[in-house]
Structures are given as C-alpha cells and as structure tokens.
Amino acid sequence: MELKVSGITKSYRRGRNKEVRAVDDVSLEIATGELVSVNGPSGCGKTTLLLMAGGLMRPDGGEVLLGGRDLYSLSPEERDRERALRVGFVFQQFYLVPYLTVFENIVVPAAGSGRWSPDLGERALELIYRLNLGHRSDHKPGELSTGERQRVALARALVNKPGVLFADEPTGNLDDENAKIVLNHISGYARNGGAVLLVTHDRRIGDSAHRSFRMKEGKFLS
Ligand SMILES: Nc1ncnc2c1ncn2[C@@H]1O[C@H](COP(=O)(O)OP(=O)(O)O)[C@@H](O)[C@H]1O
Ligand SMILES: [Mg+2]
After folding, report:
1. DSSP state, 111?
2. Facing residues of 221 across strands?
3. Domain holding 121: CATH number?
4. How far apart are CA 19 and CA 222, in angstroms?
5. Chain mean position to CA 33
6. Of 68, 84, 98, 192, whose CB has the highest number of CB atoms within 10 Å?
7. How far is residue 53's CA from residue 75's CA, in Å, rounded to a whole number?
8. Pocket lining: 12 vs ligand 1, CB cutoff 6 Å
9. Per residue in 102-114, pLDDT tens?
C-alpha cells in the first residue's frame, strides 16, 4: 500500500472559543497504480485532508503511512526527506516562482531537494512537451495563462517521479480541453505505477478515478 490514512482528524480554532472540525475521522488507502478522488463542495475539508495526507500538516489524531512509514512519528527533518523522495504536490494556488522560467520552475526545486540526477533536465523537457508547454519553456509564470501555470505546477510535482502524487483542484481553473490534458496525464501517471490522491469540487473528474469518495463537512459519506 503506497498510502494508508487512518482516522485522521483536524480542527481549526475560529475566534476565541469556537472550533471548526475541518476533517473528522477520515480513512483511505491507495495502492500503487490507483487514482483516488475525493469530491465535495468548497469548505468541506479537502485541502486540509490533502495537506495532512501529504505530510505537510500534522493531524490532531490518526495516522498517515506513506510507503509503510508513519509520517508523523518521524522527526521534521526525516519527514521532509521522505516527502522529497516520495511525494509530489500540486497546490491549489500553484506557488510558482515568478522570476524563474517554466523550465527552471520545474527543475530548481527538484534539484534542491537533494534529488538532482543527470537526466533531470531531460525529464523536465519531456514533461514540458507532453503537457503542451513546449512554446512556453523560457517564459515566466506572469506571461502564462492560468491553464499553462497549472500544467507547470503538475510538471514540477511529477519531475522527480514521486511514489504518490497529491493534487489539489488540479483542474480548478481549466477549460474543458486543458482539464482533459491534465486528467489524462494524471491517470497515465497512476497507470504507470504511481499512486494519486486528487481532491476537487470539479465534476468533470468523473470516470478518471478508480475510486471516489464524497466528502461533506469533514467526513466521507459512505
Ligand atoms: N488555516 C485555517 N484556519 C481556520 N480555519 C480554516 C483554515 N483552513 C481551513 N479552514 C476551515 O476549515 C474548513 C475546511 O477548509 P478546506 O480544507 O480548505 O476545505 P476545501 O479545500 O474543501 O475547500 C473550512 O470551514 C475552512 O474555512
Ligand atoms: Mg481547497
């Protein structure tokens, strides 16, 4: 099992005494080769769930096993290392670096995570072409459309061939054509031995996922 999430919970404090239970006792498993989606309306807890599952935010309770290792029993340094080795993350807001080109945005974080390898540039270029960004390789994010930026964020997440890809609304701002390109690529990635957890309110995901969960007010509906 690539990813095993058991009973994770997270509350945020709101105001002085109120708490919002953003994720409430959620469990899921993803095997190699699988694309699992979590669908639900804005505010139901999808981003919170993804951040916890991807090792970026400690749950209040519950466990996350990534490739068999309990992420939150590791030291922060070990957890960072596990993430660098095994995790690709597509953030809802992309977080591209404005002064780097498309190519640089893809290779610089990958090289910096201690995973530089001689074929990094080659892999980046292959992703750039496969995601239809060939004409944009030397452009900076400010010169790109939203759909192009979204695809750069995906390429950056995939360039180190992570065991698990976490994708937050990866089709959120895309027209149908770009949504199709991104979804095809993500399902291809799963088919070729990756594992994907995708969270979205986009109904177009539909049949691309092997399994789907519906989420409402922090819980999975059965
Ligand atoms: N940092 C935060 N502080 C306080 N409340 C938050 C924070 N992040 C999210 N929330 C609240 O938690 C709930 C779930 O948010 P989120 O996980 O972003 O949902 P989604 O991604 O499904 O839109 C919402 O009620 C949201 O307002
Ligand atoms: Mg969200």
Report:
1. I
2. 214
3. 3.40.50.300
4. 25
5. 15
6. 84
7. 16
8. yes
9. 999 999 988 876 6
Which residue, among 51, 79, 87, 71, has the nearest Cα to 199 in the 3D structure? 51
Residue 204 CA, ligand 2 centroid: distance in Å: 17
Protein residue closest via CA to atom 27 of ligand 1: 43
Strand locations in the chain, DSSP E?
A: 3-14, 18-30, 35-39, 61-66, 69-70, 87-90, 164-168, 195-200, 211-216, 219-221
Q: What is the mean pLDDT of the chain?
A: 93
- Put simply, whether the predicted model's pTM sits higher than 0.85 gets the answer yes
Tokens, residue 205:
């995901």
- The Cα–Cα gap between 113 and 85 comes to 8
Domain with 20 in it: 3-221
Q: What is the length of the chain?
A: 222
Contact 206, 176 (CB under 8 A): no
Query: In the numeric block, which tokens belong to residue 161?
Result: 């061939």
Is the separation of the CB atoms in 23 and 9 below 8 Å?
Answer: yes
Got the DSSP string for 180-203? HHHHHHHHHHHHTT-EEEEEES-G
* Cα-Cα-Cα-Cα dihedral sign, residues 58, 64, 68, 73: positive
DSSP state at residue 113 = I
Asked whether 110 lines ligand 1 (CB < 6 A), one says no
Residue 129 CB–ligand 1 contact under 6 Å: no
CB 50 within 8 A of CB 199: yes
Across 58-85, average pLDDT: 94
Q: Rounded to an integer, what distance in angstroms lies between the CA atom of residue 101 and that of residue 115?
A: 20
Indicate the number of domains in the chain.
1
